[in-house]
Amino acid sequence: MHNQNFKIILSFLLILSSTLIFSQKKFTIVLDAGHGGSDHGANRSYADIGRVAEKDVTLAVTLKVGAMLEKNRDFKVIYTRKFDEYPSLSDRTNLANRSKADLFVSIHCNSSQRPTAYGTETYVQGPNQNDENLEVAKRENDVIFLDEKDRQTFGSYNPSSPESLIALKLQQNKYLESSLLLGGLVEDNFVNKDKRFSRGVFQKNLHVLRMNAMPSVLIETGFINHPEESHYLASEKGQTEISESIYNAIIDYKKAIDRKTGGSVSVKKPEPEKPAESPLKNDFRILLLSSPTKYNDGDPALKGLNYILPLKDNGQYKYYYGVTNMASVKDINLKTAKDAGFRNAYAVGFMPNQKLLSGYYTIEVYTGEKLNGNSFILQTLKDVERNKENGVFYYTYGKVFTLEDAVKLQKDLETKGIKNTIIQKVFK
To answer: Which residues contact 358 (CB under 8 A, 6 or more apart)?
Structure first.
């Protein structure tokens, strides 16, 4: 009887321990080899080694990093590609989100108009911070238009969508710290282990990062247009050193996260299901500031915030941030504005498609000295009105009666190449 009870207890303990072992969630990491297929990425030909293409270097490094991680039973590795194909940017991010990944690492090579540019960089999702890195953002964003799926996915991404805005803000706030941690570890390894030059860790709004619901980094492993660095990137030695540095950074990152959370496995209690949020009757924009000064996109006065709607009213330029008819998003927008330094910001309600009872909206297309008849604006647009106040010429275009129509007209002008315009409310 005693032996039978002992066997029953032992069997129960074995079942329990095996259940706990197999129920432990592995640390899931998505490795993304940048570009691929018809998208070669940065590339350059050299007399001694032939053409060096970014898509080939990134795949080689990614597979090396993955092979090392797969030897560690704590990791589950998912690849966005394992051969020469082009997964769309939406495919890459959707794969990471569906997999409930703990980390997303996108591996790239750099290029520059300056042949002397060299070194490594790591990017994390965040607001624009440095104009010197604008070309990197443009290069990554250009890839988005390679196929129809990306046009559909990212074409619908706009500040008027509560879902898009919530995803962006939560991602930036929740995962920025962890992303910066990994980025710092990667660049430290490049410098201390590989004796390379690091250009630093930067925040930038890159499409392949912004849609990920997890800590994410994009690693620029070096400049393909730099002869010496390109040879290093194409070599077995260079690819091995780069992959080892990335691998060691991921290992150290996981250790740091485990220390912070108190273990390698964190069990979350299921959150109670929240009732669906109902839209508000009004659209809400966050008023950042009013000023007699006109600020263009990217002006330091706007503190790095995007999705700004400038509205000229009674000679004052009012700058509104975001738009939503969801209370939760309105609160997120207001917090974002205050965190950016606009301590006196507040939400303003706009009734959708409300027509002005008196007056109309027009688009201020230019302010400054008198335009020459051959100017791009006057050649592109007909029926432009001109006014002069205090020695300054103001050129306006169009007449609509709702703010929504004014925004649409402003976007139409942007497609024609007329940017940094202002919606102006005219009282009659």
So the answer is: 427, 428
Task: Write the pLDDT tens digit of every residue in 46-69.
Answer: 899 999 999 999 999 999 999 999
Instruction: Give the 3-state secondary structure of residue 365.
Output: strand
Backbone phi, psi, residue 220, to 5°: -95, 110
Look up residue 133 and give its two tokens: 């890195």
Reduced to 3 states, what is the DSSP secondary structure of residue 46? strand
Asked whether 28 and 265 are in contact (CB, 8 A), the reply is no
Q: Is the pLDDT confidence value at 9 over 70?
A: no
Q: Is the pLDDT of residue 313 over 50?
A: yes
Nearest to 121 by CA among 135, 133, 113: 133
Contact 422, 294 (CB under 8 A): yes
311-344: b (≥16 Cβ within 10 Å) or e: bbeeeebbbbbbbbbbeebbebbbebbeebebee
Sorting pLDDT into bands at 50, 70 and 90, what band is 217?
very high
Given a cut of 60, is residue 94 above it in pLDDT? yes
Extended beta strands in 141-241, E state: 198-203, 216-223
Angle between helices 327-339 and 162-192 (to 10 degrees): 40
Residues 6+ apart with CB under 8 A from 174: none
End-to-end CA distance of the chain: 99
What are residue 78's DSSP bridge partners? 30
Residue 187, H or E segment: helix 162-192
CA separation (Å) from 257 to 32, 66, 196?
21, 20, 27
For the chain, state the CA radius of gyration: 26
Q: Which amino acid is at 31?
A: L
Angle at 35 between CA 29 and CA 38, to 5 degrees: 140
